[in-house]
Amino acid sequence: MGFDMGVVPSNPDGWGPPDVPAIPQSLGGGASIPFAPFSRSDKLGRIADWTRNPAGPAAFAAASRDSVFDFTSADDSLVAGAEDSSFRLVDAKPPPRQPRFGPKWRFNQRPQLPQRQDEEVEARRRLAEKERARRDRHFQNSRSHHHPGFRGNQSSSSAKPSVDIQPDWTMREQIPFANFTKLSFSVADQPEDLLLCGAVEFYDRAYDRVNPKAPRRLERFKSRNFFKVTTTDDPVIRRLAEEDKATVFATDAILAALMCTPRSIQSWDIVVQRVGNKLFFDKRDGSQLDLLTVNETAQEQLPENKEDINSAHSLAVEATYINQNFSQQVLHREGEKVTFDEPNPFASEGEEAASVGYRYRRWKLDDEINLVARCEVHAVNADPSGGRQFLTLNALNEFDPKITGVDWRQKLETQRGAVLATELKNNANKLARWTAQALLSGADMMKLGYVSRVHPRDHYNHSVLTVMGYKPRDFAAQINLNTANMWGIVKSIVDICMKFEEGKYVFVKDPAKPQVRIYEVPSDAFENDYVEEPLPEEEQVRPLADVDATAQEMDAAAEAEANGALAANGGDGDKSAEATAA
């Protein structure tokens, strides 16, 4: 067989192939077969359109309906006009760009930034969790708060009383704070000054112009001695008690702690001695009353580790150190002094004492009870009218702005009220005690210094940022400190103690609950290392009969054990007997 070249059509009318090509016989030449080529509309465009991504059975069914070949119409291959009218050009131009800084640009760009969208979702989730935790914490605090500012997390196992409760103590009274808030008592007469001791220096008015932009470095006064003597160790109070000048004796710090009891959070204790018809309110050596609290009424609890510079104990020591040095720095140390009737009763000869004046003042509570308290003033100021004004000097300390939430160096000049409001929230008890002491001492002005660390991690170096002055009565009204309620608390406690027999008692602020307990303790308590291990909470309250019976059983058991040990040893001499007795 030869090679078949196929059919080559001839065009007799002109150049090029004929208008109607000849159909080979193998394809059914001469027969009228409807032949429809592929559509020149969007079918071609979809082949190269990579943005189209049909997914799902519905999209697959739609794609199957758009077949490339369409045999429904036999005239489409013969009518070119119909094909041209259905033809659409595929647009390959990019979509128009929207302005980047328009109002909707940020939202239109979100679908193109899946990573940023995930981060925003995660951030919103974290914020929602924080808000939910804050609400839960607020709910728990609101349920556990029995008085304003009481912190519910103090009921944790780490909260311990300021003094160890011993097995031979008997609880006589338990007073909730709610009972204190309802009391009211007005002292009829003005207090009487029985004696003034010590010497005070003049206040340096230059510190009224100190500001955060020009602070003063806090100095250290190691050569000056500060005395924290309790009531019964005061020779002047002993002399006044022998002269029968009053019935109740105390110090301004002890009275202020009693007057501000409903505002306290941390545990503290006061010793009361009933001797004859007289009452002496004392504090133990190394008592919590000697230290200033920091952030006591704040919602956030401070670290418990004593080695941390921001723990409650470390900050209390730091605040006491700052308060003492500040009270001496703002004085004219080389200038004139104001001396009182007698010298400082606690300073020995040749010893340099701090600038402190002691005013022994007497209040008449009723016809039978008079109260004498030793009150302190720290400085004197010249009155424009020619008189003299007594001042009390105290310092607030800032340790870390991230914890308190307010940076003193930025807010003291423009927002002093916000700084003071934050301190009133975090240190309500301390400020109330200072105000009560100023009222008791009869001070004309109380100066508050704002002292901050040079660096948040340096608790040795400090700067005085500013000093503000307030009148005690005006400041008491500002912090909602009611003097009638203060004296009502003192009067009720005195009346309770006057009903007790002669002996020694101790007031203990419960570390976990807003209440005060009064225990009867042995006469030799808090002397010669008496304090031992504390008892559990359920064993701290015991009736008198149970205590006596338990003591007799313990004595009998100890005697039987000693006799048995002596019999077993066969009487090996004095050394064995002494060891067994020990």
UniProtKB/TrEMBL annotation:
Region Disordered: start-end pairs: 1-28, 89-164, 533-582
One of the record's GO cellular component terms: eukaryotic 48S preinitiation complex
Pfam assignment, any one: eIF-3_zeta
GO BP, sorted A to Z: cap-dependent translational initiation; formation of cytoplasmic translation initiation complex
Biased composition (Low complexity): 548-569
Main location: cytoplasm
Leader sequence segment: none
Residues covered by region (RNA gate): 288-302
Bias-annotated ranges (Basic and acidic residues): 116-134, 572-582
Superkingdom, natural source: Eukaryota
Places the protein is found: Cytoplasm
Any GO molecular function: translation initiation factor activity
Keyword tags: Cytoplasm, Initiation factor, Protein biosynthesis, RNA-binding
Annotated coiled-coil segments of the chain: none
UniProt record similarity statement: Belongs to the eIF-3 subunit D family.
Matching PANTHER family: EUKARYOTIC TRANSLATION INITIATION FACTOR 3 SUBUNIT 7, EUKARYOTIC TRANSLATION INITIATION FACTOR 3 SUBUNIT D
Function as written in the Swiss-Prot or TrEMBL entry: mRNA cap-binding component of the eukaryotic translation initiation factor 3 (eIF-3) complex, which is involved in protein synthesis of a specialized repertoire of mRNAs and, together with other initiation factors, stimulates binding of mRNA and methionyl-tRNAi to the 40S ribosome. The eIF-3 complex specifically targets and initiates translation of a subset of mRNAs involved in cell proliferation. In the eIF-3 complex, eif3d specifically recognizes and binds the 7-methylguanosine cap of a subset of mRNAs.
Quaternary structure and interacting proteins, as annotated: Component of the eukaryotic translation initiation factor 3 (eIF-3) complex.
Domain notes: The RNA gate region regulates mRNA cap recognition to prevent promiscuous mRNA-binding before assembly of eif3d into the full eukaryotic translation initiation factor 3 (eIF-3) complex.
Name this protein carries in UniProt: Eukaryotic translation initiation factor 3 subunit D
Species this chain originates from: Panicum miliaceum
